[in-house]
Every structure is written in structure tokens, then in C-alpha cells.
Amino acid sequence: MAYEDIFNSDAIELIVRFGDHTRENFDKVKNQYSFEHIKNLIDNKECTCYFAKQTDSEHKIVIPLNDLGGQFEIIATWHISNTYEIKVNKQKKTKYKNKIELPEKQYSIEQSCFIRFIGIDERYNDYRALEDLEQLKKRVDNLEIAPKTLIENQRDIWTKYIEAQELLIKKLQEPFLCAGQYQLSEIKNAKGDIARFKFKVDLVADKNNEYRVFEEELKKNLDVDETFNVDGTTFLTMDEIFRGLDLIIQKRFSETFERERKIGCILKIRPFSLVQKIQSNITQAKIRKEDERRCLRVSDLSGNLSLIAPVLAQYGFKLSDIEVDFHITNVENLYHSPLNQKYSITFGKRFQKKDEEKELLFPEPINENTFRITKQITPELDLETDKLLFFNSLSRIYGKDNIEISQSYIYKPVNEEVKFFESDFTNEYWTNIKRELYLSDFDVTIRESDKSLYFEFIDRDDLVEKFEILNGLNKFDTVKSPLDDDFRFKVKTNLIAKKTAKQIFIEKIEKLRGVEFVYNQAEKDSKRSDYIFIGKLSANESTINQLVFNIPYFYPDEKKLAKKFLELINKKTEIKAVQANLRGDEAKTKWLREAMDKLKEENQQSNKPNSKPVNPKIRNFIFDSSKAEPAHKFDFTPIEETEEYKTFSKHEILKLNDSQRKSVLRALYSNDLCLLQGPPGTGKTTVIAELIWQHIRQSQTTRLLLTSETNLAVDNALEKLMNTKNATPELARYISLIKPIRFGKAAKFEEEGKKYSIERIQKWIDEEYVKEVEYENEQLGLEGGADDMEEEAASENPNFNAIQQWMIRIADRADSTNPKYENVLKDWVIELSQPAKETKHYFKNKYFKYVNVIGSTCSSTGSPAFSRDYQSTFNPNYTKEAFKKVNEILFLIDKKPNSWKISSLIDELGLEVDNFTKNNFKILKLALNNYLSIRFDTVIMDEASKATPPDLLLPLCFGKKSIVIGDHRQLPPLLNEKDFKEVLLDLGDAKAKQLAEEIDREFVETSQFKRLILNPKVSHTIKSTFNIQYRMHPHINDVIKQFYLDDECGGLLCGLDKEQVDSPDLKNPQSRYHGFFHDGFINDKTHTIWVNVDAPEIKDGTSRVNETEVEVVKTVLTYLKHSQGFDEYMKFWDGIRDEEKRKQEKEVGIISFYGKQVSKLRNVRITAKQLDIPLRLNTVDKFQGMERNIIIVSTVRSNKMDKGNNRIENNEDIGFAKAPERLNVALSRARRLLIIVGNKDFFYKFTDKDGNPLYKNAIDEIENNGRIIDYKTLTQYSKK
């Protein structure tokens, strides 16, 4: 054995800590020997040990056990006590291996060790031994990790990554509990037809425990008895905010809560009453309505009555009575005055008294000290005499100096039609008020449903100023003034220490934006689910209290899909819960796991179809590109000097530049792998099309798989290839050699791709055809987002398909110049152009026999439906029955190897299998494997920089050769807008927490394509870069070229013709002219602008927003609209027939690094609509792969942060904007004009972790060739 019972002076003590969990986890794996057995063999023994570096924090210790014929492999981390600690769990596999396989010498250290196992918390005081072990540990730390180990580590990380994705999907699919209340409303299009339904369902309210201690403190100390809802919102008076809430936060909760700086005012409004309207026209008197009577009282008249009479008459009133009040100032209460007895005063009626007694009768006082006489207006009225008589009577008793006289005039309506109050505002009113408020200097939200206005303010002075502005409009009456002491305002507080329930909810809703939701109508105790499609979630309209869904109902298939749910609603069914349908995501993660399983050692000898990769070397080169075989043809001779390069242009079907030509050649002659970098606008689609042509030119029977993350990229490549207008004239006729087919759901394809779909081809042959094969990663619903539902139909023309076009090309080449065959050829041409069903079948079979290109998205290649489409295309005899027969043969081989039926089934399948016997079915299994396996000679994968290794494996496992195209200078895998670890921790799940600790976030968020192409050991013969772009104006190119200086291409060049790039002829494909001119903003030579905004950013949950930038984007659009040449520029694109292309040319792209900022920027749509400017709005991440003529970037981040409560703090973090890949994508989307809105000085100073300036070069280029403008100077169209 490799151990002894003596202590050797060269041996060091290897102290290894273990616990009960070590033993339990080790034995759980079912090793050949138990942990205790192995420990007893080597504990306190001297053994030869081999140390290797497993990861930066883990070492692998291999101890050979010769007597057992195997080895003990310990995965250990360094314990705080300067000893090793064994790690045993599902991932850290300390194990017994039943064969001896020592680490490679150059990556390991051999050391004789005296092994001691001690408890996890046991003390060990031999400091000399600990010091020796620490020195050994440092030597191991300095080792290079073995390539094989690196590959194993990557496999391990990506397996965990898939597991994490499964947890996230499971969490997102948790049901939303419903309160039982819901609404269904119709949404009609311009024609009056129902285009969709809107379904709203109330959610069960969550209890808000986070604010309870805060509420108790407010009540206890300040007598503020208010509750906060789940998002931290409550309603308080002004005094309760500034002298209550703010003081409590400052004193007790400054580290836990913060109040948002802006306070909300909900102003309830109503139409002016008739009195208010009259009063607004009469300033010399007070007007009020009498409570008990339908009349008006005019008092405190300061002028002649004749001046106001015409106004009252205009509103339908005439003078009816005059009332004169006599106020007695020296009597507190007329009824209890001693003067009553003295003068025998009676009020309003006679007392019961003796005849000889005197009595003085006065009118009943209207209050404790006022008499009133009322005189009706008649021709005989002598008011002054009546007033004097009554005054004299009162003077004798109370004294004339103690009597004050006032006079009121009573006006009554001429008829009953006069309305004192309007019940509601008219539609015309709301339109007018919206226009009025649009011109105000602050944002006011109008809520017609509850007749209110909402605006925000900072302090009382700001409130008074804004309320006076609204009041000054004189358009409405306020139900209650916000200046009243008891008026309650909307106040929002945020939890600083952790996210609120609402923040987590909002993040979840954002992830589910546009996702289909379903209702499970199965019985409570049923084991099987019965889901009914509801609709797609409208994230913009959904709140923490209510979910809103759009149910499309325009096309027949939409109506069919919605029918069940609408019937359910009509039955008044109680909706107890709804949940997201992430079946496609579940299916994809399952396929990703299956793809990773293909790499396992135990599967490499399997004969099961598609259980291992076609090229076994992909198991290594997908993680380490140096393991791929070089293209030896270019090993020692520069590619441009080879004969292949010199003659290549003769065989190009498309016109290539030098870098594209070199890339195609390297890919063509590679054996395992070729990596092609395609920066923005460098013609990746052209290269892909040429690659397909060149492979087919070499062999028409080759099989190619073209795949990408999106359908758009696949369809564009096919269209580029198959469009004869793009082809070299001499080679255009040979395009017929290329026979593509599209796999997947045709509804998801672009129109360019639909003509290659199996579905359209089958419908061309048989109108009744219904596709049976469904792609599991496609959702139940239909294409289109939930927040912007499409209502127009795209015309479907089955005749526009690949086979019919192939037949037409054949017909076009028919030579009818020979009179002998003229009539026959004419009939032939007609038959091909208008084929009968039999002819269609014939050509379809011929086409499918020679199909050599399959187009599909990456994710779809994992679907069983992809396998079925493959078999039906390449195996004409393949049917469901054939598949069953194959499975039956495999069953018989395993269970009944002597069965005569095996040979019979082989004959029925048409398989030619020789030399197989009952005792050796290896040849037969291989034949069956080949029959069902998916195999391509070459797989071309586009958009690979956003793919993880499992994503790459899905399609690449099927290919003998892999051509991978991407750009590691653009965005890596789009995991989340926030820390991947944070996403997992939000789940509150123990397993998720463990994965969060074990998954290296930086590793999984780094593009695998980047690791592959930048591998210093990868052969230069299997990688290449395109260095000429044709998208951007040279000035925009200069802004982003910095990102490519270190690449093989040495920088990015602009391939547009310098003489034509500024041509005013917009039809010219080389022109990037826009023709705009506006003094102080832009001219026709300006293609890059930085609008400097130094306003503070605001934290919104885990995201950031900058409201000033939103306003500046509105201003920028306004300046563009008012620029000379802008309208002419927009009108030019109206000449494009293709609606989608016309839309793309006219749209202004607005992008931002933050999703929350994009939500804020949706307000810009109102301005854009008024300006008649179409927009395309999204995050930078989601805009990758797209381009627009004009792009506006909102950067958000600032050197100042608004913390609320009037606190502005310094900030140095630029967040997502620190990623050069994200910046590159943001700046490279524009073709003609790039406008950046942000804090120039803040970004200018930023450097990356290596001290390199990230934005400085871009800003310098803009300053040299474009314009730097301070937003404060853009005031020409400011609201007055």
C-alpha cells in the first residue's frame, strides 16, 4: 500500500477537519467504501499524497489506496485554524474512485504526509506542524489549475446555473391568490370590432408587518394614528409630515426608513356652481345661494345696483325682494333683554294679557340681535319710508347710535330650467383642462374617473405656489383646499435596510411582463391540472392590488384560444388563483440540462440516439477553445498569401471585404471550431450567407444548421442568401442548389422566414393541413406583447413558399428559343407556375430530398419537436409508427434477444444491417442510433456572445463542425438587471441561498464566447474578426471604435463611401445624412450630441431614475421636431411600401441602462405623439441586435443622489453604466444621429478597475466632431 506505520522525517502532518455532516454526505453518495472505513485505513498513517489546485478557494488531495485498487479524493478548503476542512455535498464531491488516476505532474505537488483526521471544532496546538502545512498550502495556491480541472469546474458551475434557473422559474410560477372580484371589458378597434378584452382581477392583500413598529412609534409619541400600505404609502397632514414623520425618522429610524422628497396632493375638483360663475363676474358685491330657497342673495353692494342687474339677468335671474337688516349692538340677546318688559315688547305674535296693558309688537329676530324686514318688489314700494319708520321705532328703545343697517337683494330665477349646480364635467371640459395643464411648469395628472388632479410638491411654499397656479386657471372648484390644516397628503416612505414587499412584487411583475397567465380549473383534490389560457400580463397597468391581462380577440385562432376562458367568466366562476405559464422556460431548462448531460463520461459509450455529441471533442473545446484542432492549411502561411485566398473572390456569391473573406476561409477550412467576431454593423448576416454558400459549393449534400438566439437573425440570413438581387450575377443561377427549411413555430418567424417553414409548404399543398408538431418552448398564446397589442393582420400567402419559388426559378430558365419545343415548354412553364396538387407533391419530395440548410432558434433545437421535424425532413420513411418500431427493437434486444421479431422489424424499417448476432447487437444499435440521431456537418451559430455554454451546446452538439459568431465587446448573457446572487436570495429559499454562495456571479455573467476567443492558447487559424462596419456615420463610429483597439482587427473602420456618406439623397444606401438644422442645437453635419444634465439621480427600489433626464428627452424631441428638414426627412420614408421597414426608418429609439428609467420615459410618448414622432423604447440590453436612424440614450447616473427629505448626497457609483459592453451597445445602435443625455463631467472622470477611462474618449470624440450642449440652454420651447 501507499502508507506506513512509521513517521518519516520528510513527511509533514496533513491535518484534515471533518464533521458528522461529512460522514453523512459521503455515505449518501453510495461510495464503494464508507467514510469511516477509509478514515480508519489512513488516519495516523504516513501516505503519499498529491495536491492540486481545484479552484481559487479549493484544493484537491488525492491519496492512492493500492490495496483497494482505488484512491481517496478529498476536496478541501482552508480552515481559519490553518488546517484543511473536507467539503462533501452534491457539488463538492469528496469521494472514493475505484481506480488510480493521479493528477498531471505539472499541475500537482507530490508530498509524503502523516494524516490526522480531527473534529470540525477540535483544537490542534502543534504550531510547527501547522506552519509546515501552511507553507504547503501556499505552494498549492501558486499552482496552475489543470485544464481538465478547469473544464470540470465550468461544467459544475453551469450545472448549478441551470439548477438556479429552475428555482427562479418555479418561484415565478407560484400562483397569485385572488380576492374573487374581477372585471372584463371590451376594447374595440377603429372599425368598432372587438380587438381584445381587458381582464382585471383583484389580489388578496398582503399584511404589511414591515411598518408596524414605525406606526406604533408615530401613534405613541406624536398621536398620529395612520397605517402604511405595503409600498410604504400613507396619508398625513402637513404638520404630521414635517413635525411628526420627519422627526421620527430622524430620531429613531434614519438607518431603516427614508421619506421620498416629493409629497403627493390629490385635489378633488368639481364644476363651478352657478353662484361661483356669477361671483367671478361681479366684484362689487357678495353672491350666495339661499339654502332653503331657489334664489340668490346679493349683499355688501359697494356700487349701484344697476351695474350688476344685467349680469344676473344674463344668468336668468330678476330682482324679487329687498331685505333690510337692523343689527342691535348694545343687546346680547333680544329675547332676554330687560327692555322687553319695560316696553312690553312682543316678537312676531301677541301675548295673553289684560286689555288695559300696552303692547309693542316687533318682527321675530333672525338671530339674537338682528331684525329683518322683507319687502317685495312692487310698483308701490316705498322702501326708504318703511326703513325710516322701523328705524325710528327701534331708536326709541335701543338708541339710534346702537343700530347698524345693512341691505340685501333677493334674485329669483325667471324659470325652472336654471341649474345651480352642474352634476359632472363634459368631455370638452376635460380636453380643455388637459391643454391648460400641459402648459404648466409642473406635472399634473388628471384622473377623470374620480374627478381629481394629482401633483407633487416639496414643501409648503411649493404647495402654495402650485395650488395658486391651478386656482388661477379659474376652471374648477376644489372640494377641499389643500391649504386647510386638516388636508391629508400622500406620503411615500421606503425601507432602506431591505426591499419592501411591494418592491419584490414589482420586480416579479416586471419579469412577467407580457407573459401568458393561466387558470387551473381542475377540482381541488385532482392530481392533474387543467389549465385555461387567460391572457398576457399588462405590467404597466398591474399593481400590488390588481393584475390586468390583455386577451387578444381579433383573429380566428385568438378567438378560439380565448373562448374557454370567456365561457368560464360568463358562468360567474370564482377565480381563486392565477399563475404565469412558463412552460417554455421550463422546457428550455430541461433541454439545457439534457445538453450538459451529453458531456458526461458515462454517456460517451451510449448507443441511445442523441445521448452524446456528434463531435466528442466538443466536451472540451466548448470550455477550452485550445482543445479544438487548428486549421492546418493556415498554420505557417499567412492566409492572404494562400492560393485559396487569391482565388476565393471568383467563387463569392456575395461581395465581401478583406476581413470578411479571411473569416469565411478560416471557417471553411476549420475542423472542429471556428470563432468569428462581428462588431456592430460589420455584416455578420452577409458572412453567414456566404458561409452557407461556400459549404454547399463544396458539397451539395452537406447538412448545415443555421441557428441564433432570435428568429429575426435566422430569417435575415436566409433572405440575404436566397435573394438573387444580392448575388454575384455569374453565380445567381446556382442559388437553386441551396435548399433551406425553417424549423419552429411559423407564427414566430419574420415574413422572410415563413416561406421556408414546413407549415406554409404543407398548407400550400393541402389547405386543411394543421401542424401536429408543437415546439414546447412556444407559449400557449400568440405572438405580440401584452402592453401593446397588435390589431392588424399580416396577410398569409401559402403560394409564397420556398418550393414554389424554386419551381418558378426553374421555369424562368426554360429555353423556348427552339420552335420544336416551344409549345411543350410553354405548358411546362404554366404547370410550374400554377402547379396541380400532384405536381406540388412531386417537387416537395424532390426539394426535401436535397434539403441542405435548416434554420432554427437555439432554444428550439432542444425540443423533441425539432427532432421530429428533422426526421420527417431527412428520413422520408419516418413516422410515429417507425419510431415505435425502433423502441420495440431496443426493448427486444434488452429483454428478448432471441425474438424472431427483431429481424422482421428491421426489414419493415428498411434498415440495411449486416453481421449482427444475438450475442452482439453493437452493429444493430449503432444503425438504430444513426437512424434516429440528429447530425449536421456544420452548425453555424449567430449571436453567441449572449449564450451560456448550455445554450451553445443545444445546437452545437448536433454538429461535426461548429462556427460560432458573436461579439464579446457587446452584452454577455442577459441574466438580470441586478446581481444574480441578489435574485436568488430574494427567493427566501435555502437551496437558492446555497446556490447564491456557490455560483460565481462574475463567471456566469461573462460571455463564454469571450472566454473562447480570448483564450491565449487558441490557434489563430480558427478565429477571426470583421473590422469594417457599414451601419454608423463615421462620427458615430469614432465614438465606439475605442472598444475594438485591442482586438485582432486593431480597431473598427467605417466602410461607408466618404464621398457619399453625407449625400442629401436618402435613397443612397451609403448616405447617413439627416439634414436637420436648429440654431443652438444641430446642423446637417452634426451626428453626435451630448446633452449635459447635472441633476441628481433618485434610487427607486434597486434601480435608478433621473426625472430631469426624462424632461430633457422631451425637450430634445421638441427641438428635433422644430428643426429645419425634420418634417421632410420623416415624409421621405413614407415612400417605403413595407410597413415594418417604413416604421423602423421613422422611429426614434430611446434607450436607457435602467428598466425603471424606461418606465419613466414612457411619459415621453405623450410628447412624441403630440409631435407626431414614432418611438421605440427599451433598455439597452433589450435593444442589442436592433438599430435606428436616431437614438437617444438616457444615462441616468449622476454625481448627486436625491435621498428625499431635501437631502442631496454625493455619489460616485455609475452602476450598470460601468460595463463597457453595455456602453458599446448603447452607442452603436444609431445610424445617422446619436444623442446622449447625461452628466458629462461625472462620466468623463470615471475609470474602470484597471484605471482606464471608459467615457472620456467617447466624450472627447463628441466634443471634436459633434456638440456638447448644456440642457439649461435648451429653453426655446419651455412652458411659460
TrEMBL record:
GO molecular function terms listed in the Swiss-Prot or TrEMBL record? DNA helicase activity; hydrolase activity
- EC number of this enzyme: 3.6.4.12
State the UniProt keywords alphabetically.
ATP-binding, Helicase, Hydrolase, Nucleotide-binding
Q: Where is the DNA2/NAM7 helicase-like C-terminal domain?
A: 1005-1240
DNA2/NAM7 helicase helicase domain location is 655-868, 932-975
Alphabetized SUPFAM superfamilies for the sequence: P-loop containing nucleoside triphosphate hydrolases
Q: Could you tell me which InterPro entries the record lists for this protein?
A: DNA2/NAM7-like, DNA2/NAM7-like_C, DNA2/NAM7_AAA_11, P-loop_NTPase, SF1_C_Upf1
Report the protein name in the record: ATP-dependent RecD-like DNA helicase
Species annotation = termite gut metagenome
